[in-house]
Q: What sequence folds into this?
């Protein structure tokens, strides 16, 4: 590529998930220190891990490390893959009753034979820091509280950090999952955006995505969002976590080409990823504060 061409291409600004994450974690660290001074204990997160799923091991370690970083107490209860659903439920109940545990989650996926839905529904309200319970979905629509689904709330925090206000904007979410797409759409709607949810059955995806001032893709397909599917000047948020043909981690968006069209873009890695664990810390902090407010 010659110098002329290089200069004539404007590049999207990077939405730096690590920087936003560091900013939010610094606030949480201060709140955790205040909480400890007030109550004599640190906010606490407990994670139940079942079996030997490698990716789960990495995720859980990251969560424990993040807790240490902001001064939370954390613990992992690691159960064998064949422990049975009763044992999983017994542990959820015990940690749910433990006043030093403010946030509790069951790392998914669970091994075959375990009922994930039953596990998610057994986590007591107030400690459900993943916000995966059906009641959280309802609450999000009717009266959002201080514990919100981590990935979408992380995206809202990133938009806020960069001064991007969804109000009145056309937002397109490519994904209808319970963990990302649906709560994302609800949060954008609550922020007064005009929201469209696209999914695997959407006809002419490009025609839909080209309408977006803010485009969020969480489809989990490398290379799904190409430059011709993006409106010039759009904000592009990539939630995808895929491996490309060379085995390299990549999102749903063709980062190189879409960067030439968009105004802002999140990289993968280093975009949405770091925000998910940060919002888990935020939820745990909020749960701890709500627990002591309730106890008064
Ligand atoms: N597995 C992959 N991501 C998550 C998550 O955010 N929470 C839980 N509980 N399990 C997961």
A:
């Amino acid at each position: 590529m010659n110098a002329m061409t290089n200069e004539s291409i404007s590049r999207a600004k990077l939405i730096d998930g690590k920087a936003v994450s560091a900013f939010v974690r610094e606030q949480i660290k201060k709140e955790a220190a205040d909480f400890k001074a007030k109550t004599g204990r640190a906010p606490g997160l407990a994670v139940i891990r079942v079996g030997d799923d490698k990716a789960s091991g990495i995720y859980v370690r990251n969560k424990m490390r993040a807790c240490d970083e902001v001064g939370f107490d954390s613990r992992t209860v690691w159960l064998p893959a064949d422990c049975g659903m009763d044992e999983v439920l017994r542990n959820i109940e015990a940690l749910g009753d433990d006043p030093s545990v403010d946030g509790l989650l069951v790392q998914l996926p669970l091994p075959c034979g375990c009922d994930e839905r039953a596990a998610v529904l057994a986590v007591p309200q107030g400690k459900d820091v993943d916000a995966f319970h059906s009641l959280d979905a309802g609450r999000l629509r009717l009266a959002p509280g201080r514990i919100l689904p981590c990935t979408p709330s992380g995206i809202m925090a990133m938009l806020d950090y960069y001064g991007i206000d969804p109000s009145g904007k056309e937002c397109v979410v490519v994904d209808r999952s319970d963990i990302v797409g649906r709560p994302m759409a609800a949060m954008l709607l609550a922020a007064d955006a005009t929201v469209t949810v696209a999914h695997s059955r959407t006809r002419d995806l490009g025609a839909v995505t080209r309408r977006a001032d803010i485009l969020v893709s969480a489809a989990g397909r490398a290379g799904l969002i190409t430059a011709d599917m993006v409106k010039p000047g759009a904000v592009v948020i990539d939630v995808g976590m895929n491996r490309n043909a060379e085995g390299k981690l990549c999102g749903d968006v063709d980062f190189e080409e879409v960067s030439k069209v968009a105004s802002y873009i999140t990289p993968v890695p280093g975009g949405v990823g770091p925000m998910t664990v940060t919002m888990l810390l935020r939820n745990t902090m909020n749960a701890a504060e709500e627990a002591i407010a309730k106890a008064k």
About this structure: Residues 59, 105-108, 130, 150 surround guanine (CB under 6 Å). The mean pLDDT is 95.
